[in-house]
Specification:
118 residues, alpha+beta, 5-stranded antiparallel β-sheet
């Protein structure tokens, strides 16, 4: 094969591969990122406020109660952490609002009286 043809084929394949990789990280309508790792995972971004037994309020960081390095948190896991925090007596109630990012796209989520509401 002639060297210029080989070079043209390599360049074309390289550009096609780069284009395919770029489109893999562009958002589809209603979703964030197309790459399967992102599409299958569920992430929760939320601001929570806990009310203690004496009526004081303080911010609650649910990620403090996950294993180190964990960042995938869906509504069932969030509810389990909220249940733990209220049953342990640390807070009487927890409220807040945020977003859930998953394969179904972005959804608003609220926490009312220590219950996750989508």
């Amino acid at each position: 094969m002639h060297p210029s043809v080989l070079s043209a084929v390599q360049s074309t394949l390289t550009l096609a591969l780069v284009a395919w990789m770029i489109t893999g990280f562009t958002p589809m309508r209603g979703r964030w990122f197309r790459w399967k790792m992102f599409c299958r995972a569920t992430f929760t971004i939320i601001s929570l406020t806990g009310t203690t037994s004496d009526g004081r309020t303080e911010p609650v960081n649910v990620y403090d109660y996950l294993a180190p390095g964990s960042f995938i948190l869906g509504p069932p896991q969030l509810q389990a952490i909220l249940d733990h925090l209220t049953r342990s007596g640390r807070y009487e109630r927890i409220d807040g609002a945020g977003r859930v990012l998953s394969a179904r796209g972005e959804q608003h989520v609220q926490v009312r009286d220590s219950h996750v509401v989508l």
